[in-house]
Amino acid sequence: MGGDFIRLQVHRTLVRYNFEQQKQHMKDFKKYYIITEEPEIIYQALTNASTLKLWTGEEAEMSTAPDSEFSLFGGDIVGKNIEFEEGKKIVQQWYFDGQDEPSIVTIKLHKHKDGTSAELRHTNIPDEAYDDMVEGWTDNYFRSLMEFYE
């Protein structure tokens, strides 16, 4: 009996340790991007599969229905749509293999004197994917979108 209790305590400690270790290896990213088009147009560009394909050059599956699955850049990015506020906000969960904590992407669109200020916040990015993700957001995702509306 005592051995079972000790094994359970050791198991709980290891689970707690692994959870804390995993939490320590997550990063968040926040950045603003200025796009020379109105927020309502940018919202459509981010939520309409046909428009997504135009500016990304890749197949996309997208719906504004909460809890629907999405796929961007020909399936390189997949996840679940969580919340939409038309013309203003998009919240998604992005999937990373083997990750327990949800990686949440929130894009808020603000009116700006030059068009739209897109506020990006991406939480719980696995440490090993962080640099690639930041580069992807800036050099691929938002650069493509900004160039499309130049």
Order of helices and strands: HEHHEEEEEH
Provide the spatial order of strands within the biggest beta sheet.
1-6-5-4-3-2
How would the global form be characterised?
Answer: globular
How much is the average pLDDT?
A: 87
Radius of gyration: 19 Å
Biggest sheet character: 6 strands, antiparallel
**Proportion in helices:** 25-40%
User: What structural class do the secondary elements suggest?
Assistant: alpha+beta
> CATH fold name, please?
Alpha-D-Glucose-1,6-Bisphosphate, Chain A, domain 4
Q: Helix tally? A: 4
CATH top-level class: Alpha Beta
Which percent range describes the beta-strand content? 25-35%
Let me know the number of strands: 6
Distance between the termini: 71 Å
Q: Write down the domain tally.
A: 1
- Kindly report the name of the CATH homologous superfamily: START domain
Which architecture name does CATH use? 2-Layer Sandwich
Low-confidence stretches: none
Keywords:
single chain, alpha+beta, Alpha-D-Glucose-1,6-Bisphosphate, Chain A, domain 4, six-stranded antiparallel sheet, 4 helices, 6 strands
Secondary structure elements and their pairing?
Elements: H1 2-24, E1 26-35, H2 39-47, H3 49-56, E2 69-72, E3 77-85, E4 89-94, E5 103-112, E6 115-126, H4 130-148
Helix pairs in contact: 2-3
In short:
The chain has 4 helices and 6 strands; from the N terminus they run αβααβββββα. By secondary structure, the chain is α+β, with helices and mostly antiparallel strands.
